[in-house]
Specification:
Layout (H helix, E strand, L loop, with lengths): L6 E6 L4 H9 L6 E7 L2 H7 L7 E6 L6 H8 L3 E4 L13 H8 L3 E4 L4 H6 L4 H7 L2 E4 L3 H13 L3 E12 L8 H10 L3 E6 L2 E6 L4 E6 L7 E8 L4 H8 L5 E6 L4 H15 L10 H10 L6 E12 L4 E11 L9 H11 L7 E4 L6 H10 L3 E5 L9 H6 L8 H7 L4 E11 L4 H10 L5 E13 L2 E8 L2 E9 L8 E5 L2 E10 L2 E11 L2 E2 L10 E6 L2 E10 L3 E12 L1
Helix pairs in contact: 3-4, 8-11
Length: 561
């Protein structure tokens, strides 16, 4: 390092999508000078006007013209290539790496090209001789994936399959170079491993569907993930040579745009179109303008293999990121390495793929600071457990004791108490409430709730001073994976169970009428939650229909009868 306790980091593509997010992640570090570099000095200067404790310096660096002189002029400690599209790096593919080494700097890139990352080892001997490190592919694919697989493999004697996928928020923002990279291989052969043999599958055509579930939070999905050409396809088989299958996918939303992209990729696959590269500009406009849906994203990693006792085993790691936290994840690997260098703990010298360099614990500390949540699923829970405990797992223990007691149903549990029933909003709402069986308004009514476990279901029989109605609850499957389904006659609601501050919030996600999926905009709303007050189980229920208004509202308390 050129100056003890300080680092100068030159980021090629520093004002772009991933380079800019790396700057944001490092903005709280006053020991850093970040040279925000690219082909446009005006854009670099505008980016550097943002508040930052790190020193931001704009610069012009064009990887295709005079890159060695431009990098040497700034005398950096570390060079980060966050530009791309890395699939387009052909002649002079490692020009930035060579320039960094010539300037006496270490090197990182966020490459998403399997071929580029695999080829970096050709520079290993030279890099070692210089006492420098060169890490390629320092991003979610393959660094986070590899870290997760190492965690999941901890109690396995053998890994047979790996499947991983990223579902970005529709509002995450995707740079044009990412779009160009995707367009370059859409429909073209992507080398994977299937049934123990290397085979080619069409990029963005081959797909899997997954639901990302972190107990105690609203699930993400189901989402369709299409095959992407990323370094994992080369790096992970090298780390786990016995793999019989590997898949890496992306699940962009809205789903209709994803389907359209896959259809175009299929046209390339059957040679109706030569390539999607000419459509990259249109694809970029669509992705960054035709956006709707929830601002949240996630990631999954599935592993199957043989456990230490010789039995087949399956493990899944799930991650959920709300709002603007998710888009930062691909740049976190580079952040972790740079902060380690600041603390005089640089990676070992040599040129290699970045996959094995970072532990999951390093990510988890950064996830916790940004509200990103994760969970590991070891397979189906014990079906003898109460249904709520099955679904919430460790999150169940975060609920207050009265709420836990009210849901520990393995046979029959009777609760009794008092409730206030709010009036319906209007005569139409009142009529709907009567059809369902909701009680009429009253300031104070005795209430009894009988919960009975019957097979894989719980029957909830509610009696408000002689006005009775019942529902059946059970674990959702398929499209409703991770949700609890509550059925009132022909109407069924799929509900997310969210644990927050010891309370249980029930969030409506979708509904059906006689098994027919109904429009989301007609889904009932209103706050529904359970909480602890005065050591008793308390409930708060509001059922509000769009246009119609409140159909039912009741709140009160219950204790074991």
């Amino acid at each position: 390092m050129k100056q003890a306790g300080r680092l100068t980091v030159l980021i090629v593509g520093g004002y772009g999508t991933f380079g800019g997010r790396l700057c944001d992640l490092l903005a709280d570090e006053p020991r850093l000078t970040l040279i925000v570099a690219g082909r446009s000095l005006a854009r670099a200067t505008a980016f550097c006007a943002r508040p930052s404790q790190a020193k931001l310096v704009p610069a012009v660096v064009d990887r295709n013209a005079g890159v060695a002189a431009a990098i040497a002029a700034h005398d950096p400690d570390i060079v980060v290539d966050a530009s791309g599209p890395f699939q387009a790096y052909t002649r002079g593919a490692y020009a930035v790496v060579e320039a960094a080494l010539a300037a006496g700097a270490d090197y990182l890139d966020l490459a998403d090209s399997a071929a580029l990352v695999a080829g970096i080892t050709a520079l290993d001997a030279r890099t070692r001789g210089l006492g420098r490190f060169v890490l390629s592919g320092a991003s979610s694919f393959p660094v986070l994936t590899a870290a997760v697989v190492r965690r999941l493999a901890g109690d396995l004697q053998r890994i047979d399959t790996i499947a991983a996928g990223i579902a970005p928020s529709p509002y995450a923002g995707v740079g044009i170079n990412v779009i160009r990279a995707i367009a370059s291989y859409a429909g073209k052969p992507v080398r994977v491993i299937a049934d123990g043999e290397p085979v080619d599958r069409p990029g963005l055509v081959a797909s899997v569907t997954r639901t990302i579930v972190v107990p105690g939070h609203v699930p993400l999905g189901p989402v369709r993930y299409s095959l992407v050409d990323v370094p994992d396809l080369v790096v992970l088989p090298a780390l786990w040579p016995g793999l019989r299958s590997i898949f890496t996918g992306a699940g962009p939303t809205p789903a209709i745009l994803h389907r359209a992209l896959s259809a175009l990729a299929w046209l390339v696959h059957v040679r109706v179109l030569p390539s999607l590269s000419p459509f990259a500009g249109l694809m970029d406009w669509c992705v960054n303008h035709l956006r709707w849906g929830e601002h949240r994203g996630g990631m999954f990693v599935d592993v199957t293999g043989i456990d230490r006792d010789g039995w087949p085993a399956a493990r899944r790691w799930n991650m959920l990121a709300e709002g603007d936290a998710g888009p930062l994840v691909p740049s976190m690997a580079a952040e972790i390495v740079i902060r380690a260098c600041l603390d005089s703990k640089p990676p070992a010298a040599g040129a290699r793929a970045a996959g094995p360099e970072i532990d999951l614990a390093d990510y988890e500390r950064r996830f916790a600071a940004r509200g990103i949540v994760t969970a590991i699923d070891h397979g189906a829970p014990d079906s003898a457990l109460p249904i709520y405990r099955q679904m919430l797992g460790a999150a169940y223990d975060q609920l207050s004791a009265p709420i836990q007691r009210a849901h520990d149903v393995t046979g029959t549990l009777v609760l009794s108490g008092r409730a206030r029933v709010e009036p319906a909003a209007n005569p139409i709402a009142r009529l709907i409430g009567r059809i369902v069986g909701f009680p009429p308004a009253a300031d104070d009514r005795p209430v009894t709730v009988t919960l009975s476990r019957v097979g894989e279901c719980e029957i909830w029989a509610r009696n408000f001073d002689g006005h009775a109605f019942r529902s059946v609850q059970y674990r959702g499957t398929g499209r409703n994976e991770g949700l609890i389904v509550e059925r009132f006659g022909p109407i069924a609601f799929a509900i997310a169970m969210v644990v927050r501050d010891g309370q249980l919030h029930l969030v409506q996600r979708r509904w059906t009428f006689f098994g027919i999926p109904m429009p989301r905009f007609l889904l009932p709303t209103g706050a529904v939650y359970e909480h602890d007050a005065d050591g008793r189980f308390n409930f708060h229920v509001d059922v509000v229909l769009p246009v119609v208004g409140r159909v039912a509202g009741y709140r009160g308390w219950l204790v074991p009868a």
